[in-house]
């Protein structure tokens, strides 16, 4: 699908990944278009699904979330219904900010935020270990974020 994108489309997407609140006038200036053709291209990129949605990236420490953990979740029984129940419940837990079904020694990797280690421990005990299908969990605590989600490569 990305083969349909020309240099200007990629420039629009790259600019919006850096600043999703950019005005159409500023975006048009950055990519070398007038405002109307830029707005048309932007609408087309949205309609064709290249832009999933817009959102603000919140400052985790400012909101009191001092702990980021990556949790490897393993199932003993691989049952589609159990996995579906697990995924539905994970969707409903706000502190699980990402969840991926993966290959390898774990079935899922979750990214979890917590206020502090005590809060994280309580979450693990009261919520994580009681999710459907979970037979073991392993945590890797982030010591320092080296690179945050900086957008997709568009070259």
CATH superfamily of the largest domain: Lrp/AsnC effector binding domain/regulation of amino acid metabolism (RAM) domain
Could you report the average pLDDT, rounded to the nearest whole number?
Answer: 95
Judging by the overall fold, what is the CATH architecture of the largest domain? Answer: 2-Layer Sandwich
User: What's the helical proportion of residues?
Assistant: 25-40%
CATH class of the largest domain: Alpha Beta
Structural class from helices and strands? alpha+beta
Task: Report the β-strand fraction as a percent range.
Answer: 15-25%
Q: Spell the H/E element sequence.
A: HHHEHEEHE
Which shape, going by the Cα principal axes? Answer: elongated
* Low-confidence sequence ranges: none
CATH topology of the largest domain: Alpha-Beta Plaits
Mind describing the biggest β-sheet? 4 strands, antiparallel
Number of helices: 5
Euclidean distance between termini CA atoms: 14 Å
- The assembly state of the depicted protein chains is single chain
| Rg result | 20 Å
Strand order of the largest sheet: 2-3-1-4
Number of strands: 4
Q: How many discrete structural domains?
A: 2
Transmembrane segments: 57-77
Protein name: Transcriptional regulator, AsnC family
Domain HTH asnC-type: 5-66
Keywords: DNA-binding, Membrane, Transcription, Transcription regulation, Transmembrane, Transmembrane helix
